[in-house]
Each structure stands twice: as C-alpha cells, then as structure tokens.
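Subject: 3D-(3,5/4)-trihydroxycyclohexane-1,2-dione hydrolase structure
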Amino acid sequence: MRLTTAQALVRWMLAQRSELLDGTLVPLFPGVFAIFGHGNVLGLGSALAEHRQELPVWRGHSEQGMALAAVGYARATQRRQVAVVTSSIGPGALNMVTAAGVAHANRLPVLLLPGDTFAGRAPDPVLQQVEHFGDPTATVNDAFRSVSRYFDRILRPEQLIATLPQVARVLTDPADCGPVTLALPQDVQAETFDFPDALFAPRLHRVPRPRPDQRSLADAADVLRTARRPLLVLGGGVRYSGAAGRALRFAEQHGVPVTETTAGRTLVPHEHPLHAGPLGITGSASANTLAAEADVVLAVGTRLQDFTTASWTVFSPGVRLVALNTARFDAVKHGAIAVVGDADASLAELTGLLAQWRTEEDWSARAAVERTRWDTHIDVLRAATGDLPTYAQVVGVVNDHSGPGDYVMTASGGLPGELIGGWRATGVSTMDVEYGFSCMGYELAGAWGAAMALPDAVVTTLVGDGSYLMLNSELFSAAFAGHPFVAVVCDNDGYAVIARLQEAQGGRPFNNLYADCRSEHPDPPRADFAAHARALGCVVFSAESTEDLATAYRKAREAALERRRPAVVVIRTHPAAWTEAGAWWEVGVPEHLSGHADLTARKATQLRHLPP
C-alpha cells in the first residue's frame, strides 16, 4: 500500500485496539491533540485530516497543556488508552518536554509526535532550527531522550515497520510503560513507501499479567509468616492492574492493615476496618503511626517515593521490606525481597502460599482505631472558624458533594497534602494527584484530558492561584471543545506552600507570597481570576466562605454538565493553614546562611542521618 510516512502512521494508529479492565474493547489511540506548524501541518496534519471522522483531533492552545491533558487521559483510563500529541518543530516540540517528564515519572503512556528539521538538510538552517556546531544530526528533539521510555527519529519511511511494534510494546507494557517520542522530520513525513498490508491489520493489545518467580514468592511468604505487625502499602500499580479488590481480600484474609500511596489513593473504602489511611508526609498520622511500628511491610505496585516514605524515616530502622512490582527496577530498591509480577496475579498466588496465616487481632484492630483519630482531627479542621476558608475546608466541601462516580484531582503545591490526607474515598480509583513530578499547571490541563476520558463523571480539579497563572490556556480548549469539568481556584496570594517550606527551614520570607516579592508599585495589581476564566469561555462562580463554596460548587457541577464547558469556582483561602501528618521530609538546608542565626533545621537534618 503506497502511503506517505504520515499516512502510514495514522492508519497504523487506527488499527490498534485495547482492552479495558472490564473487558470492553476500545481504540488504543482514542484521539490526537494537535497544534500545527510548518513542521507537521502538511505531512501529519494532512494525514490526520483524511481520517478526521475516525480519529478525533482536538485543537489545543499550548503544547505543554495538550501533552498534560494526554497524561490526565492516560491516568483516567488506568493506562488502557493512549492519547497522541503532535507539534511543530523547535519551540512547539520543546514545550512538550515537561509533560513527557510528568508521564515518565508517573509511568504513564503518551505518544508524542514532534515535528523535526529536514532529514535531507538541503534547506538548512530552516525556521526554528537550532544548529549544533559539532553535531549536524542533533536537534532540539534530542531533549526528549531523557524523559522518554522509547525514542526514535524516523529518517526513512520504512523505519516505521520496525519501530511501531516497539511503540505499542512500551505503551502497553506494565513494567516499561511511559512516554514514547517519535521525532518526525518534515520531509520524511511526506515521503512515500510501499508499506506491507500486514502493518495495518487490526491488533488487540491486552496488558499482560506476568506471574512471579515461585522461589521469590516463597521467600516473601516466609518473611510474612514471621511478621507480628505487618503492613500492606498499595501503590499505583495496584490501580493499573485492577487489583484493588484482590488487595482488600488479601488484607481481610490475613488481617493486615492497609495504607495507600499518592498514586494508590482511593483504592480502599474509607471506612473499611483495615484501612489505616494514606501514608507519608502528605498522608495521615494514622498510617504513619502504624508504619513506625510495623516489622514487615508488603509494598505492592509502588516505587516508594520520598513523600511516601517521609525520606525513609516513616518505617522503623529494622523493618523488613517485601516489594511486589511488575518492574524489577522498582522491586529491588532498598534491599527489598523482590517479587516481580502483576499485582492481581501475584497477590492471589501469595495468598495461596500463606494459607491460614493471620496476624494478631490487636494489630489488625489498630487500623480503625488510628484512622478514627485521624478522621476526628480532619473533622476539627473542617469545622474551624476564621477569616478565610482553609484548604482542608475546601476539600471537605468538594468531598461532601461528590458521588461514587466522580473524579477529583490536583497537583503540586499545598493542595496534594490536603487532598491526599483529608479526602474520604467516594469510589475506587477516583483520585489523580500528580505528585510524582509535582508539575504546576497539570491541574487544569490534566482535567481536560480526564473529562474527555470520563464523560459520565463530574471531574473536579483543585488548583492554587500560582498554578492557575502558570498554565490556564486549556480552560479555553476544553470550553471550545465541549468537555465539562469543575475547577476550584484557591487564591492564597502566591506560592504559599514554598513560603511555608522556606520559613520552616530557617529561611526568611522572600519571593513567594506576593507580600514578599519585589514590585515597583506601592499597591501591586491582583489577578481577577473570575474575569479571566469568564473570558476563556468558562462558567464562573465566586465564594467567600465555606457556606458560599458549598452553594457555588453545587451550581458549578450543574452548570458544567448543562453547558458542556468548564465551570470555575474562585475562592480566597488562608495562606498558612495546613493539614499536618506528623512526618518529615529531607530537603537541602544550607550549612550557613548569612544573617540567619537559626540553623535548627540543619541540625535536625544531620540528626536524622545518625546511626540508630
């Protein structure tokens, strides 16, 4: 079949299918986000236009925003579908690198198709080309190599035959899953080749469920049987395996308290008697209390990031770690007994080996006792009175008005700690907190992608004023395209959570809250978020109190669905009221600060590293 490179790529994407966790067959590539320029408008753009009815193309307004929307789409579909993003060469391509980092850190599949300079080099240097004096083969797209699971530059049309099976492998492999980048020189996009028909044959991609090595599984069972205070930690791998039910049955059969990581949040019903709450510095004092006493930790589907482990201070020094993960890279960390396999299949086999083993009832009961104490603490925070609503109260209002099919999300700043620690699960796998790469701007763009993936749910994103100002263009993209979600914008006068970190570690207030930033104005202007969101085509509501917020949020949910566009709720929030989980996080505290007498934070860091 004689086709251009771009035509062949599009036809191949159309032929790929995927299987959802419930067995439903869907397109592997459900749509394309595109901003066209001279590096992709004629080649890939023309090929996409030929199939506009079969493969939806959505116009974005920031390449980074589009790619972050693709990340949000991948998370909302449990990695079973992959959104595609294409850009022109140069700045358009580089705008996607940050989003590639988000996908890479969080093990999420996206397909990035940046345009590239001419492979033939005859017209070089072309518009937007960055010339490397010592390497004519290098282009700005090489920046994607460090944040791609798989990278290729297509220099001849027939190279697609070899690379496309690898593209599908990485995007659907539970261990290697992550962003794929195919750099497409604009001349090669338009060149033709006689492609074999077999390349375009329909193909169903089922995510494999690798079974663990029986010897490793037996070792893990031996360690668990010795445990008097075992703890089960559930991460994102449990979510993507669809193993939440299996993990809960495992915990019930053996009486093991359960905690969740950031990516594993909302896997366990909040009121379950074995649920100890979320783990780590953005988690709960309840889970952290049990973690400090646990003698064996079974960590399933998690890379145990520093926020989860409180920089490896949340567990007791003598704890024994069993890590069950599809990726050996993650399973072997920190001297763990590694079990490499699918979470659902591996937990089933591990239960069989453990037979009737069960931990002591007193330890099992601690989960509900500690979590009830934490719930009481959150209730107090939600009921507090003051001049301005707190993040905890904003989370509480959204939580109270959300149903089991709704979806909540946030990223970076102070809101992740409030949402992770204070939310009470309304449904399974209904939260997305981007705290793997902690990318400001994901909140609004990712919500666009999640809203596309979950048309029957109300998607709510919580966003601070700093993130809103950093990347808001996809509010208009979603409004224009007709994808509704609710955005609650919390205005606390700047980068409040970084100001908190700065001052808590001995630093002086500087360049974070607006009051501590330089301006030539005696009375600097403030952003009018309501007017701005309205100008981007959104329905807008304002609130000044928690009571106002409850009314505004209810109206926003209704308006978003009725008018098929984002509904934005704007509220001023307290800049220094936080939910504290009682854990510690290691950051680089200076050994010396000129004019600063208080080096307590540095001394505390040094003490943490003394031998136990």
